[in-house]
Known about the structure:
With 239 residues, the chain is mainly alpha-helical. Helices cover 74% and strands 3% of the residues. Helix 4 packs antiparallel against helix 5 (136-160). It is globular, with a radius of gyration of 23 Å. The protein starts with a strand and ends in an 11-residue tail after the last strand.
Amino acid sequence: MKVIHLEASQELQAAKNAMFRSLVTLFICYLLSVVPVVGLIASVAMLVATVWYFIGVYKFSKLTNSSLFQSHMFMVLITLGFMLVLAMIIVVATQGEVEAFFIGVVGVVYIIDILLVIWLFWKICTEFSALTNLRQFMIAFKFYIGSFFLSVIGIVMMLMAIDLSLMISIFKEALAQESSYMSQIDTLVINSSLVYVSLLIFALTLVSTILSFVFYLLGIAKITNVSVKEQRPKSDSVQ
């Protein structure tokens, strides 16, 4: 095991700075994206910051002989797959009746997708923690998994408070751009107390997600050295 100090490696220092500064930029632009005047510019800046972050991760992963970049790329592919599933749901819903089998398949795919994302983020945080000997990364993962369970509880409670058959009917009418669906929204909620509780849980989910991001960012900011496994030299000939 070889310990590399960032002060002695300009490339590692540059990779760390790229990751940290891109995440800070991403967070600031995310906050500004809700402002109507600068929203479009902030969205473009978010895309640039994301690419900047992945460049930093790629360099850091290469210099430390780790699989951090591969894990990040798998997370991107899985997220794109989830977006594709959502698009399929909307397309099928606009075509007519949604079969129970289709809903079941989509549900299974969604669960697998979420579990894979959680596992990959755990792998990323674990590897960062092992490389840097910093506990902020694992704290970030704990807040992340906490936000996931809170969101599940919030969704379940929201579903308990809503007439699902009426919700599906309103959703279909909205996709068909029928004006009558607006008149049914007031009758959608059947238990306001559960709705308020679920909204509170969603607020806690947001707080937990932000804390996960903050601790992940703090972990990157505090990197001063990394422990890298030395690669074994390849033998020139086979005995």
